[in-house]
């Protein structure tokens, strides 16, 4: 395979440490690497194992999909990919051009691809949904529709969302007013969905707890704000994840 100018990384963040040699071998000089993953600081993790000559872009997928068989992906709803520049040898103008070129490739394929001015803020915005729905679906073995029809789970979801919004604020990322309520309302009307963490648990794969929970918790705490409900959810999921991994190793 010839060296690639663009590389699209859609693996789980749990395997990022092993990606450096693979990407470096496939990448052309000055290549752009688009990381399509959930969670916080996933680009930082990849940056540490890649040459400085490569550009890293971050992508946030607003889509309901799951892999039902090797090479078979079920698409249930939505489909936009938001794109932002993380790091590399580009200055401001060159980084803007890289983002726009990436967005243009997606749009040519018929995929909506908004450009993000602040990648870290956008990652916090995605966490407002990922933290409650991914974690609770795995912990309670349930789906979004069931979570959204029970008053107790509804209250817990909104409390978790509010904590993430406040955590983002503490870290210097003020989210748009009413953003959490908007996501809550959208979820009420979307098709029934089991998020990726539910499927990872069922398939006995490692859960993406570091990127979705541990790093946001640490970042908010370093900024002077604790998220006790998010921490409790993380601790419960960590127990399940360890048990799941142990069973998988036997």
From TrEMBL:
Its EC number is 1.1.1.169. Pfam families: ApbA, ApbA_C. Residues 118-239 form the Ketopantoate reductase C-terminal domain. It is an enzyme of class 1 (oxidoreductase). One of its GO terms (cellular component) is cytoplasm. The keyword Thylakoid does not apply. InterPro entries: 6-PGluconate_DH-like_C_sf, 6PGD_dom2, ApbA, KPA_reductase, KPR-Related, KPR_N. Keywords: NADP, Oxidoreductase, Pantothenate biosynthesis. Residues 2-87 form the Ketopantoate reductase N-terminal domain. GO terms for biological process: pantothenate biosynthetic process. GO terms for molecular function: 2-dehydropantoate 2-reductase activity. It comes from the Bacteria. PANTHER family: 2-DEHYDROPANTOATE 2-REDUCTASE, PROBABLE 2-DEHYDROPANTOATE 2-REDUCTASE. NCBIfam families: apbA_panE, PRK06249.1. Catalyzes the NADPH-dependent reduction of ketopantoate into pantoic acid. Belongs to the ketopantoate reductase family. This is 2-dehydropantoate 2-reductase. It comes from Pseudomonas savastanoi.
């Amino acid at each position: 395979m010839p060296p690639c100018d663009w590389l699209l990384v859609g693996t789980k963040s749990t395997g990022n440490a092993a990606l450096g040699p693979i990407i470096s071998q496939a990448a052309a000089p000055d290549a752009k690497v688009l990381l399509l993953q959930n969670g916080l600081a996933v680009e930082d993790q990849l940056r540490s194992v890649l040459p400085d000559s490569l550009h890293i872009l971050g992508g946030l997928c607003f889509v309901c999909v799951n892999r039902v068989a090797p090479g078979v992906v079920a698409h249930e709803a939505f489909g936009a990919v938001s794109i932002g520049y993380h790091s590399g040898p580009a200055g401001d103008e060159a980084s803007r051009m890289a983002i726009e070129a990436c967005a243009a490739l997606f749009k040519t394929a018929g995929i909506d691809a908004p450009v993000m001015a602040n990648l870290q803020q956008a990652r916090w915005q995605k966490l407002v949904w990922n933290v409650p729905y991914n974690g609770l679906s795995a912990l309670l073995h349930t789906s979004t529709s069931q979570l959204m029809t029970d008053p107790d789970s509804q209250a817990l979801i909104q409390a978790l969302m509010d904590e993430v919004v406040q955590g983002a604020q503490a870290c210097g990322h003020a989210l748009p007013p009413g953003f959490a309520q908007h996501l809550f309302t959208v979820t009420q009307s979307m098709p029934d969905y089991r998020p990726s963490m539910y499927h990872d648990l069922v398939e006995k794969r490692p859960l993406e707890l570091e990127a979705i929970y541990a790093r946001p918790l640490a970042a908010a705490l370093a900024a002077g704000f604790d998220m006790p409900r998010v921490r409790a959810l993380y601790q419960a999921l960590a127990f399940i994840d360890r048990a799941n991994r142990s069973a998988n190793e036997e």
